[in-house]
């Protein structure tokens, strides 16, 4: 994505929307010191230019039956284009994968999973990691609890 020039009003609007994208233009206008029509124009421009990628609702995973959050660091044997594309395609086909990043360092991929429990994760690991000869290894990090007050500061929605 190209860099987009954002002024203090754009940044203030984006900050407010990242906490609650249902905030009305009238309320946003009061909060950032602009007219409602100026806020609407700016929001249209931010959406058109790709700064705002999506307007979403974030649903608590426990309500969906997937209360266990797991991060996985995955290392591959080979990182050729075909191998990367194949692994990425495998990840795209799995509902458990909420976010995935191709990364540098010890791990080639960092995954964020939401699963119903340890048994579901074991099945996922068998299907995705153990059955793939290109997976050299993986490290599992199980989240014990979310730290209150941090997640809603500026949410990064995966998959956008």
TrEMBL record:
<dbReference type="InterPro" id="IPR019887">
    <property type="entry name" value="Tscrpt_reg_AsnC/Lrp_C"/>
</dbReference>
<dbReference type="InterPro" id="IPR019888">
    <property type="entry name" value="Tscrpt_reg_AsnC-like"/>
</dbReference>
<dbReference type="Pfam" id="PF13404">
    <property type="entry name" value="HTH_AsnC-type"/>
</dbReference>
<keyword id="KW-0238">DNA-binding</keyword>
<dbReference type="Pfam" id="PF01037">
    <property type="entry name" value="AsnC_trans_reg"/>
</dbReference>
<dbReference type="GO" id="GO:0005829">
    <property type="term" value="C:cytosol"/>
</dbReference>
<dbReference type="GO" id="GO:0043200">
    <property type="term" value="P:response to amino acid"/>
</dbReference>
<keyword id="KW-0614">Plasmid</keyword>
<feature type="domain" description="HTH asnC-type">
    <location>
        <begin position="6"/>
        <end position="67"/>
    </location>
</feature>
<dbReference type="InterPro" id="IPR011008">
    <property type="entry name" value="Dimeric_a/b-barrel"/>
</dbReference>
<dbReference type="InterPro" id="IPR036388">
    <property type="entry name" value="WH-like_DNA-bd_sf"/>
</dbReference>
<keyword id="KW-0805">Transcription regulation</keyword>
<dbReference type="GO" id="GO:0043565">
    <property type="term" value="F:sequence-specific DNA binding"/>
</dbReference>
<protein>
    <submittedName>
        <fullName>Transcriptional regulator, AsnC family</fullName>
    </submittedName>
</protein>
<keyword id="KW-0804">Transcription</keyword>
<dbReference type="InterPro" id="IPR000485">
    <property type="entry name" value="AsnC-type_HTH_dom"/>
</dbReference>
<dbReference type="InterPro" id="IPR036390">
    <property type="entry name" value="WH_DNA-bd_sf"/>
</dbReference>
């Amino acid at each position: 994505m190209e860099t987009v020039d954002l002024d203090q009003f754009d940044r203030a609007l984006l900050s407010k929307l990242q906490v609650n994208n249902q905030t009305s233009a009238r309320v946003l206008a009061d909060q950032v010191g602009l007219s409602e029509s100026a806020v609407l124009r700016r929001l249209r421009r931010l959406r058109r230019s790709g700064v705002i990628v999506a307007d979403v609702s974030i649903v608590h995973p426990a309500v969906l039956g997937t209360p266990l959050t797991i991060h996985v660091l995955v290392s591959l044997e080979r990182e050729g284009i075909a191998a990367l594309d194949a692994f990425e395609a495998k990840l795209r086909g799995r509902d458990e994968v909420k976010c995935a990043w191709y990364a540098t360092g010890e791990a080639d991929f960092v995954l964020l999973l939401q699963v119903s429990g340890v048994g579901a994760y074991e099945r996922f690991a068998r299907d995705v990691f153990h059955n793939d000869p290109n997976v050299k290894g993986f490290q599992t990090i199980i989240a014990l609890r979310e730290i209150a007050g941090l997640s809603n500061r500026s949410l990064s929605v995966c998959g956008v």
